[in-house]
């Protein structure tokens, strides 16, 4: 593979420790949005090096500026604000200037460039990172409102990246032929956090008033969710209550199904999710089958399981394999199939549930975010060493 940027100067010793190399992450997602893959990985990265998380620009009627917020001891969120009158290539050029000025102000000599969106390449082409990482967690080109040029820019990112990570088996199969250094890192789990849902706890006030059986979902509510399926389920079993946690984005809230047994409780902090999960009888993943879900590998699958909740999901490929194949998650697509699967979960006796939980725990023990980050970091360090011509023993 040919790297489409200036080669880094070969030196024998550039720093006393690889962890002193800063990391700049460019993301299409907000840090304070739903807590998911970027937050899990980059908060762990920040335990060893400074991390700067660049969000997409927000509009402002005032002067262009950067708003910098420290979220962790070594992690800062960078939010650019740009006037709407600045658009097209001049907008990208201005963002490039902001990035260069930021690097100078922070005294950043060397850095890792970490991309969640290829679109950020339009204002970071001039950077000369010691390693470029593309963590491909979604096929963004298939999402609602995606720019048709996104695939073209992604091809350029493949040319520049040293290593590519993919968020699920389907994405890995789609991307592995496009780069010589692609690695599969599917959704992992903070087991101890979600295992709190297995212990008795006080129901949150807004959920305590909802009757059982409770069927729950947490996550973004957008074009990936089968709203018709939720509406049908509510009609078929009016005695069941459907609890939906999360922001409604990219769809008109007026199009979401409304019924006495459907409860929208809004977005909740990551820290509170186990408390809500503990009060559910069954966890749901009612995803549509469309372009936006073709390559998804939902992080919530292992999170639900770690919380000890039975799970019913539509036949999303990366859920069927491995979770459905190993009988850890029940798979259903029609409303009738969902009713039957939920009924089966509600009727399980204690012995059957205990045997299922034992298989769940055996599966999850090898799928921690800590382990995922250690393996990713090892691959990144290898790229840095190769690019700088520095042998590992030169670091102390």
Would you state the CATH class of the largest domain? Alpha Beta
**Low-pLDDT residue intervals, each spanning 5 or more residues:** 1-16, 392-396
| General shape | globular
- Helix fraction? 25-40%
Spell out the helices and strands N to C. EHEEEEHEEHEHEHHEHEEHEHEHEHHH
What is the CATH T-level topology of the largest domain? Rossmann fold
DSSP strand tally: 15
Number of helices, where a helix is a run of at least 4 consecutive DSSP H or I residues: 13
> How far is the N terminus from the C terminus?
30 Å
CATH architectural category of the largest domain: 3-Layer(aba) Sandwich
Domains, number: 2
CATH superfamily of the largest domain: Glycogen Phosphorylase B
Beta-strand content bin:
15-25%
Summarize the structure.
This protein is an alpha/beta fold and 396 residues long. Helix content is 33%, strand content 17%. The protein folds into two domains: 18-188 and 368-394, Rossmann fold (3-Layer(aba) Sandwich), CATH 3.40.50; 191-364, Glycogen Phosphorylase B (Rossmann fold), CATH 3.40.50.2000.
Written overview of the protein:
The chain has 13 helices and 15 strands. The protein folds into two domains: 18-188 and 368-394, Rossmann fold (3-Layer(aba) Sandwich); 191-364, Rossmann fold (3-Layer(aba) Sandwich), CATH 3.40.50.2000. It starts with 21 loop residues before the first strand and ends in an 8-residue tail after the last helix. It has 396 residues and is an alpha/beta fold. The protein has helices at residues 37-45, 88-106, 150-160, 169-175, 191-194, 205-208, 227-236, 273-277, 300-306, 317-324, 335-347, 350-364, 369-388, and strands spanning 22-26, 51-54, 58-59, 65-72, 75-82, 111-115, 131-136, 163-166, 182-184, 214-218, 241-245, 262-266, 282-285, 311-313, 330-331.
């Amino acid at each position: 593979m040919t790297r489409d940027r200036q080669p880094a100067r070969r030196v024998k010793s550039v720093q006393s420790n690889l962890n002193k190399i800063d990391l700049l992450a460019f993301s299409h997602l907000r840090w304070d949005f739903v807590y998911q893959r970027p937050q899990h990985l980059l908060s762990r990265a920040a335990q060893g090096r400074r991390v700067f998380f660049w969000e997409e620009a927000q509009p402002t009627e005032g002067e262009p500026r950067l708003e910098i917020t420290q979220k962790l001891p070594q992690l800062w969120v960078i939010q650019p604000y740009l006037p709407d009158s600045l658009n097209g290539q001049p907008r990208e050029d201005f963002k490039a200037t902001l990035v260069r000025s930021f690097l100078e102000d922070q005294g950043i000599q060397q850095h890792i460039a970490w991309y969640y969106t290829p679109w950020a390449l339009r204002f970071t082409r001039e950077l000369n990172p010691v390693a470029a990482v593309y963590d491909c967690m979604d096929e963004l080109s298939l999402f609602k409102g995606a720019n048709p040029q996104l695939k073209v820019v992604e091809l350029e990112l493949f040319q520049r990246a040293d290593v590519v990570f993919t968020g699920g088996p389907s994405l890995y199969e789609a991307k592995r032929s496009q780069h010589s250094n692609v690695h599969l890192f599917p959704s992992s789990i903070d087991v101890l956090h979600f295992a709190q849902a297995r212990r008795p706890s006080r129901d949150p006030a807004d959920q305590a008033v909802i009757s059982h059986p409770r069927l729950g979902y947490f996550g973004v509510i957008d074009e990936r969710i089968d709203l018709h399926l939720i509406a049908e389920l509510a009609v078929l079993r009016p005695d069941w209550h459907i609890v939906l946690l999360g922001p409604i984005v990219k769809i008109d809230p007026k199009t979401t199904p409304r019924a006495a047994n459907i409860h929208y409780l809004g977005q909740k902090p990551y820290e509170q999710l186990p408390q809500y999960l503990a009060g559910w009888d069954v966890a749901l993943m009612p995803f549509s089958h469309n372009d936006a879900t073709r390559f998804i590998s939902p992080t919530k699958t292992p999170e639900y399981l770690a919380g000890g909740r039975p799970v019913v999901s539509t036949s999303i490929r990366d859920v069927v394999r491995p979770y459905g194949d190993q009988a850890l998650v029940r798979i259903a697509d029609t409303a009738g199939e969902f009713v039957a699967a939920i009924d089966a979960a509600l009727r399980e006796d204690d012995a059957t549930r205990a045997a299922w939980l034992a298989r769940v725990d055996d599966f999850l023990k090898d799928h921690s975010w800590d382990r995922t980050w250690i393996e990713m970091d090892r691959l990144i360090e290898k790229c840095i060493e190769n690019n700088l011509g520095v042998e590992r023993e030169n670091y102390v």
